[in-house]
Specification:
- The chain folds into two domains: about 180 residues, Up-down Bundle (Growth Hormone, Chain: A), CATH 1.20.1250; about 180 residues, MFS general substrate transporter like domains (Growth Hormone, Chain: A).
- Helix content is about 80%, strand content about 0%.
- The protein contains 15 helices and no strands.
- Helix 3 packs antiparallel against helix 14, helix 8 runs antiparallel to helix 15 and helix 11 runs antiparallel to helix 12.
- The longest helix has about 35 residues.
């Protein structure tokens, strides 16, 4: 946080409110996923046009992230989180109703802005709560984001399966977000920075830039699992197309389990060992998937990637909240922007490498990049 941390920051109601906000962010983001096929059908567009439209979501997030940190300093986390929640609640029904390319693009842009602002402000709050508590808590907060992701996609999918229209399905999701926001809002941190909160844009520097590059690698890894794991299983391992999604599902489950237990792990073995062992585990998981030609082993490898990578981004967010090269709020925005670029550019980069060589080589590059994180663990955490 941009204010002096006090014991009140670590009080149980504040910790609960922080967990709820992380849940809301994951829930709101994933609630959109089941609506994608309906939007594609409603607008009668091809995959290429849909891909370009989905870029609007990423652009909106990248626009909001550098602005969110100084706004949190000026307004307080509470106001910014509530404002971002309002944007999500406005954008989600629009995503279910729009009938033109322009309106869907604008709705996705608004949705991305809400997600980006929520991401930065909730992580600033989480850093303040963790620092005030004196023990690792960030992985647990991110675990609730993962649980929210499963809940959001699951709830909307079930409602659609039961015959609800996309609008009414998302309306139910919206009501849940509003109820949770009303409950958590009273205990969010409202302190504002009294001195100069800094510029609206801050370029990452020093240790922050290095951590940002490591976040880029880790977000790239998550993007690779999201966009390429199913193709790897079906094309390279001969798995039935209907089962291609198993890889990412197991990756996500393993990541959620890892995050929910991550705080205990970090408190027990320390940040250095968690970062080094986790990145090594993720790299080894990709190695298993590449070198052993068995679908079951490939699935096990993807689970190891999720388990190993689960606590790495939360850990780096926690580290950047303690560095002195930049104000923590601006540093969080900077590494989030650099890291988020990994999600946007990573899948395309992997596709380019796969086109020039093979998907095996592309995944191998990801494994080597994860080893860079392993070798950097001592420098980052000291």
């Amino acid at each position: 946080m941009t204010t002096v941390d006090t014991p009140q920051h670590a009080a149980l109601p504040v910790r609960i409110a922080t967990r709820i906000v992380f849940f809301i962010a994951g829930f709101g983001m994933s609630a959109w996923a089941p609506l994608v096929p309906f939007a594609k059908l409603r607008l009668d567009i091809g995959d290429a046009s849909l891909g370009l439209l989905l870029l609007c979501l990423g652009i909106g997030s990248l626009m909001a992230m550098p602005l969110a940190a100084p706004l949190a300093a000026r307004l307080g986390c509470k106001r910014l989180i509530i404002g971002a929640g309002v944007l999500l609640c406005l954008a989600l029904p629009a995503l279910a109703l729009t009938h033109t390319l322009v309106s869907l693009g604008l709705s996705l842009l608004l949705f991305g802005i809400g997600l980006g602002a929520m991401d930065i402000s909730m992580n600033i709050q989480a850093v303040a709560v963790e620092k005030a508590s004196g023990r690792a808590m960030m992985s647990g907060f991110h675990g609730f984001f993962s649980i929210g992701g499963i809940a959001g996609a699951g709830l909307v999918s079930i409602l659609l399966w039961l015959g609800c229209t996309p609008f009414w399905s998302i309306a139910v999701a919206d009501l849940l977000i509003v109820a949770l926001m009303l409950y958590a809002g009273r205990d969010l941190l409202s302190q504002r920075q009294e001195n100069d909160p800094g510029p609206l844009f801050a370029r990452p520097r020093g240790k922050v830039m290095f951590i940002g590059l490591l976040c880029f690698i880790l977000f790239l890894t998550e993007g690779a699992m999201l966009d390429w794991s199913a193709l790897f299983l079906t094309v390279e391992r001969g798995l039935d197309s209907a089962k291609g999604g198993l890889g990412y599902a197991l990756f996500s489950i393993a990541m959620t389990i890892g995050r929910l237990n991550g705080d205990r792990l970090i408190n027990a073995i320390g940040r250095y060992h968690t970062l080094a062992a986790g990145s090594l585990c993720a790299s080894a998981g990709i190695g298993l998937a590449i070198f052993i030609d068995q679908p079951a082993v490939t699935l096990l490898g993807f689970m190891l990637v999720g388990l190993g990578a689960s606590n790495l981004v939360p850990l780096l967010f926690s580290v950047v909240g303690r560095q002195t090269d930049m104000p923590p709020n601006l540093a969080l925005a900077a590494i989030s922007g650099v890291g988020y670029a990994g999600i946007l550019a990573g899948p395309a980069l992997i596709g380019f490498i796969a086109h020039l060589t093979s998907l095996f080589a592309a995944f191998g590059c990801v494994a080597l990049l994860l080893l860079v994180v392993t070798l950097s663990a001592r420098r980052v955490t000291r």
